[in-house]
Amino acid sequence: MKKNFLAAGLVLAFVSITSAGFAQTTPVVKERQENQQKRIAGGVKSGELTAKETRHLEAREVKIQHDKREAKSDGVVTARERVKLHREQNRASRAIYRQKHDTQTRH
Hints:
- The chain is mainly alpha-helical.
- The protein has one domain (2-100).
- It has helices at residues 2-24, 27-46, 51-72, 79-100.
- Helix 2 (27-46) runs antiparallel to helix 3 (51-72), helix 2 (27-46) packs parallel to helix 4 and helix 3 (51-72) packs antiparallel against helix 4 (79-100).
- The longest helix is centred in the first third of the chain and has 23 residues, at 2-24.
């Protein structure tokens, strides 16, 4: 009987630790941020982005980074926080595309 309780306790502890670990990380957000930074850098290098557009896009990325840190601050990234981060990244991604493909170019 004691072995069953001990085994159940260990399994419960393991599940709690691993689920908390998954909740604290945001690997998809990190990968997307890195990708979007590369896209912005590519736009600057190719001249597709003006200095003003670059500042605006970088400000969006800073806000996403701030929101990510804030979401992780209590140790758990909730589903609502994760949805907010994904929505912000989707909007930033569309903004990068629009700015890179508009008629403005750096001289």
